[in-house]
């Protein structure tokens, strides 16, 4: 149980220009971007390809970058969700079970996540696993404020 209050942000990069993306992070006082994508090297990632993003964040906003695969869905869960035309309820259930099995609340620290920002691709947080990660950690740690950028 952590008593320190954690301000946790989340952001998706699709439907944002690089300028919007980086300006939003800087204005919000983000210290670390936590990449929660399973695949962060695809061409579709544009300016958020892993090594590029790490470089840009540091140069543009002196923001650290860390990729935590434990916060990503497994390929199985993701593929099944896409094949099933996205039954969100099933995906959510499986993903939260995965977070619990992985005990992610013990693998990431409140220090890392304070003024941290969970990154994935979806433009909006509703049907996106970054929201599930944020809410899971909030339930595990108590003092977490979530802000979706």
Polypeptide structure, described:
This is DUF488 domain-containing protein. It comes from Tumidithrix elongata BACA0141. InterPro entries: DUF488. The chain is α/β, with parallel strands linked by helices and 149 residues long. The chain has helices at 18-27, 50-61, 75-83, 88-102, 104-107, 110-113, 129-141; strands at residues 6-12, 32-35, 64-67, 116-120, 144-148. The protein has a five-stranded parallel beta sheet with strand order 3-2-4-1-5, sandwiched between helices. β2, α2 and β3 form a beta-alpha-beta unit. It is globular. The protein starts with 5 loop residues before the first strand and ends with a strand. The relative contact order is 0.28. The mean pLDDT is 92.
Name its key features:
149 residues; alpha/beta; globular; DUF488; DUF488 domain-containing protein
How would you sum up this structure in a few lines?
This protein has 149 residues and is α/β, with parallel strands linked by helices. It has helices at 18-27, 50-61, 75-83, 88-102, 104-107, 110-113, 129-141, and strands at residues 6-12, 32-35, 64-67, 116-120, 144-148. It comes from Tumidithrix elongata BACA0141.
Strand order of the largest sheet: 3-2-4-1-5
Distance between the termini: 27 Å
Most strands sheet: 5 strands, parallel
Number of strands: 5
Q: What structural category characterises the helix and strand content?
A: alpha/beta
- How many helix segments? 7
| Helix share bin | 40-55%
Order of helices and strands: EHEHEHHHHEHE
Count of the domains: 1
| Quaternary | single chain
The chain-level mean pLDDT equals 92
Radius of gyration: 15 Å
- Sum up the overall morphology in one term: globular
In terms of DSSP E residues, the strand content is 15-25%
- Regions with little confidence, pLDDT below 50 for 5+ residues: none
């Amino acid at each position: 149980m952590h008593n320190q209050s954690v301000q946790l942000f989340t952001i998706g990069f699709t439907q944002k220009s690089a300028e919007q993306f980086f300006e939003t992070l800087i204005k919000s006082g983000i210290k670390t971007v936590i990449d929660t994508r399973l695949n962060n090297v695809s061409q579709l990632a544009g300016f958020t390809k892993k090594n590029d993003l790490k470089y840009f964040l540091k140069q543009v906003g002196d923001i650290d970058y860390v990729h935590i695969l434990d916060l990503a869905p497994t390929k199985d869960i993701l593929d099944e969700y896409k094949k099933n035309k996205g039954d969100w309820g099933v995906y959510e259930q499986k993903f939260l079970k995965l977070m619990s099995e992985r005990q992610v609340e013990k693998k990431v620290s409140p220090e890392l996540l304070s003024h941290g920002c969970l990154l994935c691709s979806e433009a909006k947080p509703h049907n996106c696993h970054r929201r599930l990660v944020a809410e899971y950690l909030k339930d595990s740690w108590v003092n977490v404020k979530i802000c979706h950028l």
